[in-house]
């Protein structure tokens, strides 16, 4: 397998710059998520790595080879699309083996590798079926088998699970991570789903307006966002009003940082707790969602959100005066110059 190195890539469509001096390295064998809002450049970056789009400037290396001017069919990559893109008139085995036939692999070798790929995605007994005879999750696995059967150096996934319902998507997240670990292939995937990015990836890159605004492990980016955009795009954040900072234990200089707390880090009580950081609030709404509940409160006039186990929350009516508290270690510190 191979690492992928992108250096100073720019790409414009007319007057719109989709990628703006992007530099990032995808480690050999890693699972990397590209996350960002619509129009952030994440899909353009993936397509540029794949070779479906050529950059205006900059370099792309797959392993030791520069490929920014190499056509897609010669980059030795596997690609899995959101739409599956299976051939409806071909069997599952023929769909999976299509890339091998294009590469003129011998018939015996093709059968062996197709069988191995189908076993890997737990569809070893489905090779003779047609795509319309499979469930959505099974068709997704066929598309994945087809992407990896050619033994590419890099696997690129474009919103691979977005067409599935929630339960099946969670199951496929587990399977996709298992398969990636077994094969050990360098994997880059685009998603708009924050939970999916946190669940699957070893590293995350957040894009905004064609730039990488932060990259790191999921825990690094979640626990130490370098901007308000990163803090609120990957997860949610309650911002502490400047007027409410007095007396709180904070992890940074108040003139240089803004501070926030994640909703799941908060505790709600009907009286002030004896330890930790605490602010008075007014309960506006409590939303039951099974084991968990969401409380909407007002802190110094600002809307805050709290998420906790429903049974851990006191029974209080909307309009009640409450306290929200958290440990000082759960306070996020964001540089003010990067706060927007």
Characterization of the model:
This protein has 340 residues and is of the alpha+beta class. The protein folds into 2 domains: 4-232, Rossmann fold; 236-338, OB fold (Dihydrolipoamide Acetyltransferase, E2P) (Beta Barrel), CATH 2.40.50. The protein has helices at residues 42-50, 92-102, 107-120, 136-148, 166-183, 194-200, 218-223, 228-233; strands at 4-13, 16-26, 31-35, 57-62, 65-66, 77-80, 154-158, 186-191, 203-208, 211-216, 238-239, 257-261, 267-269, 277-289, 292-299, 302-309, 321-326, 331-335. It has a 6-stranded mixed beta sheet, sandwiched between helices. The protein has a 5-stranded antiparallel beta sheet with strand order 13-17-14-15-16, with no helix packed on it. The chain starts with a strand and ends in a 5-residue tail after the last strand. Residues 4-234 form the ABC transporter domain. This is Phosphonate ABC transporter ATP-binding protein. Keywords: ATP-binding, Nucleotide-binding, Transport. InterPro entries: AAA+_ATPase, ABC_SmlMolc_Importer, ABC_transporter-like_ATP-bd, ABC_transporter-like_CS, Mo/tungstate-bd_C_term_dom, P-loop_NTPase, Transp-assoc_OB_typ2.
Oligomeric grouping of the chains: single chain
Rg over C-alpha atoms, rounded to the nearest angstrom:
24 Å
Mean pLDDT score: 92
Per the CATH scheme, the topology name of the largest domain is: Rossmann fold
Q: How many domains would you count in the coordinates?
A: 2
Distance between the termini: 38 Å
InterPro entries: AAA+_ATPase, ABC_SmlMolc_Importer, ABC_transporter-like_ATP-bd, ABC_transporter-like_CS, Mo/tungstate-bd_C_term_dom, P-loop_NTPase, Transp-assoc_OB_typ2
Protein name: Phosphonate ABC transporter ATP-binding protein
Pfam families: ABC_tran, TOBE_2
Keywords: ATP-binding, Nucleotide-binding, Transport
């Amino acid at each position: 397998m191979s690492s992928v190195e992108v250096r100073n890539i720019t790409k414009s469509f007319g007057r719109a710059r989709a990628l703006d001096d992007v530099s990032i390295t995808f480690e050999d064998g890693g699972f990397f998520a590209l996350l960002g809002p619509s129009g952030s450049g994440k899909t353009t970056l993936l397509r540029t790595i794949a070779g479906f789009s050529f950059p205006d400037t900059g370099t792309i290396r797959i392993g030791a080879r520069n490929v920014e001017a190499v056509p897609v069919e010669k980059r030795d990559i596997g690609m899995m699309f959101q739409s599956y893109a299976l051939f409806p008139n071909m069997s599952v085995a023929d769909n999976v083996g299509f890339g091998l036939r294009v590469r003129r692999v011998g018939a015996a070798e093709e059968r062996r590798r197709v069988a191995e790929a189908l076993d890997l995605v737990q569809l070893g007994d489905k090779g003779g079926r047609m795509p319309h005879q499979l469930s959505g999750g099974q068709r997704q696995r066929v598309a994945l088998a087809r992407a990896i059967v050619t033994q590419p150096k890099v696997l690129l996934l474009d919103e691979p699970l977005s067409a599935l319902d929630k339960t099946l998507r969670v199951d496929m997240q587990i399977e996709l991570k298992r398969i990636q670990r077994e094969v050990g292939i360098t994997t880059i995937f685009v998603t708009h789903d924050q939970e999916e990015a946190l669940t699957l990836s070893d590293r995350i890159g957040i894009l905004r307006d064609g730039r990488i605004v932060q990259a790191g492990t999921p825990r690094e980016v979640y626990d130490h966002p370098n901007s308000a955009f990163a803090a609120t795009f990957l997860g949610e954040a309650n911002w502490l009003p400047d007027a409410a900072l007095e007396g709180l234990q904070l992890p940074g200089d108040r003139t240089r940082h803004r501070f926030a707390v994640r909703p799941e880090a908060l505790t709600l009580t009907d009286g002030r707790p004896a330890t930790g950081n605490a602010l008075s609030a007014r309960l506006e709404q409590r939303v039951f969602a099974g084991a968990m509940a969401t409380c909407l409160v007002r802190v110094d006039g600002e809307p805050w959100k709290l998420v906790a186990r429903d049974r851990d929350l006191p029974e209080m009516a909307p309009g009640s005066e409450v306290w929200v508290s958290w440990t000082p270690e759960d306070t996020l510190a964001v540089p003010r110059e990067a706060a927007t």
